[in-house]
Design goal:
Blueprint: E1 4-7, E2 10-13, H1 19-27, H2 39-51, H3 55-67, H4 73-85, H5 87-102, H6 105-112
Antiparallel strand pairs: 1-2
Helix pairs in contact: 2-3
């Protein structure tokens, strides 16, 4: 399913959250751990990938969009939909949650015994 979103009066096709996109995010300094911690950077970087523009240009587009009464909702909803549709993203997120559970202080004590 093709998901579209609009920023500053321009429409963009939402990119799938696949391995390549996650690598691109990491190259821009956004790891999976950072996605929740740096939402503004995620929105800007995601727009830059979808629009095939620089991060700086994406930031200016978002700024103009907000100044003209727009919100982050379109971009965030498109990203969320693409994350939910991505089998790869769901898989890696699930594995990350499972790994975090295995390294909790309680499980670390159990493994040493």
């Amino acid at each position: 399913m093709t998901k579209m979103f609009a920023v500053n009066g321009k429409s963009y096709k939402a990119k799938e959250f696949d391995f390549n996109l996650l690598c691109d995010l990491e190259e821009q300094g956004l790891s999976l751990d950072d996605i929740d911690k740096k939402p503004m950077s995620l929105v800007r970087t995601y727009l830059s990938f979808c629009a095939e523009i620089t991060k700086e240009m994406a930031g200016k587009e978002i700024e103009a969009h907000l100044e003209n009464g727009g919100s982050f909702n379109d971009v965030v909803e498109a990203m969320s939909a693409m994350m939910k549709e991505s089998g790869f993203f769901r898989s890696i997120s699930k594995n990350k949650e499972e790994d975090a559970g295995e390294t909790s202080p309680k499980s670390a004590k159990t493994k040493k015994a």
